[in-house]
Amino acid sequence: MKKRSICVFIVLLIAVSMFPFALAEGQDTFLFDQAGLLTDEQVSELNSLMDQIGDQYGCAVYAVTVTDYTDYVNGDVRSCAEAFFTANDFGSGNDKSGVLLLLSMAERDYALIAHGYGNTAFTDYGKGELTDYFLGYFANNDWYGGFYAYADGCRQLLEMAANGTPLDVPGYEPDRSVGLSTGAKIAISVVVGCVIAGIVCLVMMAKMKSVSKALRAERYAVDGSLDLIHSTEVFSHVTQTRVKIESDSNRSSGGGGTTVNSNGFSGTSGKF
Amino acid sequence: MPSMVNNYKCPACTGPLHFASSSGKLECEYCGSTYDVEEIEKLYAENEAKAEEAFQQHEEKIKEETQVHGAADNEWDVSGLNSQWGADQEGLRVYNCPSCGAELICDDTTAATSCVYCGNPTIVPGQFVGIMKPDYIIPFKLDKQAAVDALKKHYHGKRFLPKLFTDQNHIEELQGVYVPFWLYDGTAMADVTFDATRSHMHREGNYNVTTTEHFNVRRAGTVDFDKVPVDASSKMSDDYMDSIEPYDYADLVPFSTAYLPGYLANKYDVSAEDCSDRADERCKRSALDIISSTVNGFETCSPVSEEVQMRRGKVSYALLPVWMLNTKWNGKNFLFAMNGQSGKMVGDLPVSWGRFWSMFGMIAAPVAAVLAVLMLLL
User: Fold this and answer.
1) Binary contact (B285, A217; C-beta < 8 A)
2) Residue of chain B minimizing CA distance to A196
3) Best-predicted range by mean pLDDT among A176-180, A236-240, B32-36?
């Protein structure tokens, strides 16, 4: 028992030691610029912005820059982001709600992950739209612009989620039945009942009418009397339409929602 | 002056003969003898040979005066129409309805007690003047009992029909009426151009490419129409007569007054020229449909221009059989008409709004209840 406790302590110590700057900078820090991309003033400003967004929507917003993510993990850049999130006990509330953007400068990799309520607010489609929003800045080495766009994008998606409509695939309708009140369910039932009754009664009423004017006289056309004196089909022109086939693998393939792994994270990654 | 025949009398006992629709023969009310219509007509024709010759000479003179020049002027050929009834006229009576103006014709063995169009019971005898003699007639094939049964079947199963309507319907007042019709022959000449397309799709890299071929299609031709009917009475609603179509012209026979006993006939009061627009309209629409049906092998086919002209042919005047009942309900007139040959019954029925809303509630309530329970439980 004693040996087991010592082993757990050592594992935690190693985990924490991999991400030393988190503990060193305190729990009010949301922007970790280990790669040195921003000035102190920019870090302070962006940190305040992310803090304010996290407080407002109950979902913490984080950003991390590292020189090379492979210094920390043996997996991919996304697993590095998840390890960072877990090791530093990030997230708001009991379900550790949060979103984190990690930039690795060596190979210009990025990972965007979410946890807890963050999986609801940042759907697969929403993450795709968010990355489209800020990646352009990073591609041009505009680091402040990129992180500001990231924070602003997070605020917009969290606002939509707070209004009950998280950004998702067009036409995708999440299951809302759980959210309907009793009164709304009864009202829907009454409306559907009236519509069905109305259709049935109108069909029955239509049978009360049997008089209508004849518009045609096909039955009086003499059989075989059709004499075609002119029958031509002349080719005129050709038109072409080209429609691009959508194949974005970072986004939900039409089904909507958020794909969450066994660790409770959802995410996307790529190059900038 | 040849002797005039008042009506068809039984050769055996001189009793009055009436046309029985069930057997298609003339039957004597007194001795029960039956005769074919042709047999009686031949008998009377032989007896009135000299009178017929005189009338025919008079008809030839009228035909020359009214001869139409035909296709060159594209006028309707009404040369066959005439108002010379000959010996038949003496056996016929005319009744006028002072309420709606209908002129009803019947033989002198039939009592016209009320107007079939408006139900007015005070109809008065009128003058048999200027009434065109029909060319053809389709005799009644179904008797009054068949009409009563058809009307009861027409009411059956109509849940919104007020109960009092059927109770107070005076169904026994069904009356057999020969309705006047103009039958138009003609040829429609149609010329239509279409924009037609065919398309196919293939993939090029990351694109789906749809290639659409456009064609200018033209069809022009003629279609003949035979005996397109338009009712010639302003008292009879066109939509009612359209609705009881079709009549089987295989039963169309040359007119004879022998078919009238027991039934009323209405005199036409709308001329062939005035009715022709209806026939033209129906023929033109059908000609366009027939011409368009010859365009095949395209995915879409939209008409760009349509031109139809009617080449007018012969017009015939015919009496077609209709069983009719005119009834009032809550101040509104309801007319029921049955094709006296095929038995097709038409007539709009009144709606009881009390029954409507009752049925509405009986359906809406349980459906809403079941749906609400399911939604609350799930």
Assistant:
1) yes
2) B364
3) A236-240
CA distance A203 to chain B (A): 11
Other Cβ atoms less than 10 A from the Cβ of B356: the count is 16
Q: How many CB pairs under 8 A join A and B?
A: 202
Give φ, ψ of A195 to 5 degrees: -65, -45
pLDDT tens track for A105-120: 998 999 999 999 999 9
Which of A193, A227, A238 lies closest to B221 in CB terms?
A227
CA B21, B25, B26, B31 torsion-angle sign: negative
Q: Pseudo-torsion of CA A22, A26, A30, A32, nearest 10°?
A: -40
Tell me whether residue A73 is exposed, middle or buried, using C-beta atoms within 10 angstroms of its C-beta: 0 to 12, 13 to 18, 19 or more. Answer: middle
A18-27, A80-89, A197-206: which has the minimum mean pLDDT?
A18-27
Residue type, position B35, single letter: Y
Instruction: Determine the Cα–Cα distance for residues A46 and B137; give it in Å rounded to an integer.
Output: 98
Q: How confident is the model at residue A229 (pLDDT cuts 50, 70, 90)?
A: very high
Question: Which chain B residues contact residue A194 at CB under 8 A?
Answer: 360, 364, 368
CA distances (Å), B216 to each of A237, B213, B316, B377, in order? 10, 10, 41, 61
Interface mutation vs chain A, best among B195, B200, B216, B373, most A CBs within 10 Å:
B216
Q: Considering the entire predicted model, what is its pTM?
A: 0.56
Considering only the beta carbons, identify the residue of A201, A243, A245 that sits closest to B356.
Answer: A201
**Sign of the CA dihedral running B113, B116, B118, B119:** positive
Flag if B356 and A205 touch (Cβ within 8 Å). Answer: yes
pLDDT band at A58 (very low <50, low <70, confident <90, very high): very high
Checking if the pLDDT of B365 tops 90, the result is yes
d(Cα B149, Cα A127) in Å, to the nearest integer? 74
The per-residue pLDDT of chain B, averaged, comes to 82
ipTM of model over 0.85: no
Angle value at C-alpha B323, between B318 and B329, nearest 5 degrees:
130
